[in-house]
Amino acid sequence: MIKRLLKKRLLLLVIPLVLVVAGAGFFLLGGAGAAPFVLNITINQSGDGGKSAAPAEHHLTVSLGERIVNLADPGGYRYLKTEIVVEVAVDQKTYERLTAAGGGGGHGGGGKTDPLRAELEHSWPKIQDTLTMVLTSKTVDELATPDGKEHLKAELREKLQPAFGDYKVTEVYLTQFVIQ
């Protein structure tokens, strides 16, 4: 008799617990259009509430435009058509200022002026010259492999940084890349 009561009580506890765990798992794994689960844990936070921690870093992108250049192959009959997009890190205040300016910091803003590009206008000739010098120094053999493209991106990141001033170049994207 006691065993039956215990089994019923145990069953009454186990079934809801299983349902809660299954429902939480379904929600956390994004089932049925549920919002993704984000867990933000701060470890070793100082006693001042985290105010001394580094400010949040945001990223904005700017297209450097489409380019067609001659490659450095013998004979000079090889061309590269590319579009390069640069991602820069900015602080919260700069991010809010630039994204509130109406462009969202991305490229292809539907005719809107990109506020990050407008900020870089004084450096634009230097940026374009750097692109020309780096791209025209490459051969087809250097650019044909994935490693070659990664090397190009790293070189562009390094060489473009001085022209971007206070904006830290974090990534270079090759959004178009055609060799002919």
Give an account of the 3D structure:
The chain has helices at residues 2-28, 92-100, 115-119, 124-136, 140-143, 146-164, and strands spanning 57-70, 79-91, 168-179. With 180 residues, it is of the alpha+beta class. 43% of the residues lie in helices and 22% in strands. β1 (57-70) and β2 (79-91) form a beta hairpin. The chain is built from 6 helices and 3 strands. It starts with a helix and ends with a strand. The longest helix is centred in the first third of the chain and has 27 residues, at 2-28.
Largest sheet geometry: 3 strands, antiparallel
Which quaternary structure do these chains form?
single chain
Our Rg estimate from Cα atoms comes to 26 Å
Residue runs with pLDDT of under 50 for 5 or more positions: 107-111
Shape: elongated
Spell the H/E element sequence: HEEHHHHHE
Q: What is the helix content?
A: 40-55%
Question: What is the number of beta strands?
Answer: 3
Largest sheet strand order: 1-2-3
Q: Helix/strand/pairing class, anyone?
A: alpha+beta
Average pLDDT taken over every residue: 81
Number of H/I helices: 6
What is the beta-strand fraction? 15-25%
How far from one another are the termini?
Answer: 86 Å
Question: Keywords, please?
Answer:
alpha+beta, single chain, 6 helices, elongated, 3-stranded antiparallel sheet, 43% helix
Ordered list of secondary-structure elements with their pairings:
Elements: H1 2-28, E1 57-70, E2 79-91, H2 92-100, H3 115-119, H4 124-136, H5 140-143, H6 146-164, E3 168-179
Antiparallel strand pairs: 1-2, 2-3
Helix pairs in contact: 4-6
